[in-house]
């Protein structure tokens, strides 16, 4: 399961997936970026799942996400408001 919330804790996107792999992370992050198209993120906070870093790099290479976006990780974010954007 993926949840994305903004800095105020409001739900931006939600996606149920039986796997937490790079393709699933890519899909949910792309959904978030499209939902926030008027206010693109300056940073993305995630748990330490390696798939996020790969998905963010792919989104940057494809031009969906600015190269200047900071990716911050915390081991415990999956237990609170995971995927903060």
UniProtKB/TrEMBL annotation:
All copies of domain DDE, residue ranges: 1-80
Highest taxon of source: Bacteria
Protein name: DDE-type integrase/transposase/recombinase
Natural source organism: Microvirga splendida
């Amino acid at each position: 399961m993926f949840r994305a919330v903004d800095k105020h804790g409001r739900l931006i996107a939600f996606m149920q997936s039986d796997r937490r792999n790079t393709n699933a992370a890519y899909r949910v992050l792309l959904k978030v970026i499209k939902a926030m198209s008027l206010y693109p993120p300056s940073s993305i906070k995630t748990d330490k799942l390696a798939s996020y870093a790969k998905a963010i790099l792919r989104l940057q290479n494809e031009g969906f996400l600015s190269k200047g976006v900071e990716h911050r990780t915390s081991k415990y974010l999956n237990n609170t408001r995971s995927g903060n954007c």
